[in-house]
């Protein structure tokens, strides 16, 4: 059983990697976003990026820095199937999971203007933002010394495999294939 985790910059193509592994390699998908949306709805908050950050930070502060990630890791382990879990956004999460069995950590990035164009096109409830807000949201999540808060820049540095997605789906899929071929699955 392989468990892949992923971190990303906003709009870089995390969903493309998830879809590829689910559709082409039969991985089971677990989502921090879905987990947080359930909690946001329980709290009666609006479903948007700001609420996700607030609730995620709150849960990590109440319990421990890797609480959400470890909940999803246990769900994936219980499934007994290869799994892709998105996403890791804090150093505490990465540090807690790095020693876990069959753990592989992916990161994906792309040029900011390309990423913003993708966000506008996908039109999720949390994506209705200006380019300035997009960049501001990303900067808020890029660096933080608190292990319970987002530090995407450091998480990307800690990844086992980094994908650059400035081009086509086919080119990204080739990058993915090269990496998963080493997993012997």
3D structure, described in words:
The longest helix has 14 residues, at 49-62. The chain is of the alpha/beta class and 185 residues long. It has nine helices and five strands, in the order βαβαααβαβαααβα. The chain has a single domain (3-176), classed as 3-Layer(aba) Sandwich (Rossmann fold), CATH 3.40.50. The chain has helices at 14-25, 32-42, 49-62, 67-79, 91-97, 112-122, 131-142, 152-158, 169-180, and strands at residues 3-8, 28-31, 83-86, 103-109, 161-164.
Low-confidence stretches: none
For the record, the count of structural domains works out to: 1
Cα shape:
globular
CATH topology: Rossmann fold
Strand content: 5-15%
Biggest pleated-sheet summary: 5 strands, parallel
Radius of gyration: 16 Å
End-to-end distance: 8 Å
H-E string: EHEHHHEHEHHHEH
Please give the share of residues in helix.
40-55%
Q: Please, what is the average pLDDT?
A: 91
Q: CATH homologous superfamily?
A: P-loop containing nucleotide triphosphate hydrolases
Strand order of the largest sheet: 2-3-1-4-5
Q: For this structure, what is the CATH class? A: Alpha Beta
How would you classify the helix and strand content by structural class? alpha/beta
The total of helices stands at 9
Q: What is the annotated CATH architecture?
A: 3-Layer(aba) Sandwich
């Amino acid at each position: 059983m392989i468990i892949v985790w992923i971190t990303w910059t906003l709009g870089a193509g995390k969903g493309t990697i998830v879809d590829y592994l689910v559709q082409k390699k039969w991985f089971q998908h677990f989502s921090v976003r879905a987990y947080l949306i359930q909690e946001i709805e329980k709290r009666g908050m609006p479903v948007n990026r700001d609420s996700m950050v607030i609730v995620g930070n709150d849960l990590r502060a109440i319990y421990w820095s890797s609480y959400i990630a470890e909940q999803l890791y246990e769900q994936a382990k219980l499934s007994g199937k290869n799994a892709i879990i998105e996403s890791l956004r804090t150093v505490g999460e990465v540090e807690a999971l790095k020693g876990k069995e069959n753990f592989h950590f992916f990161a994906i990035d792309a040029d900011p203007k390309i990423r913003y164009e993708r966000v506008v096109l996908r039109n999720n409830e949390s994506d209705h933002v200006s380019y300035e807000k997009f960049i501001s949201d990303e900067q808020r999540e890029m660096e933080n010394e608190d292990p319970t808060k987002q530090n995407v820049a450091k998480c990307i540095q800690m990844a086992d495999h980094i994908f650059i997605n400035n081009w086509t789906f086919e080119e990204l899929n080739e990058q993915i294939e090269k990496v998963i071929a080493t997993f012997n699955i």
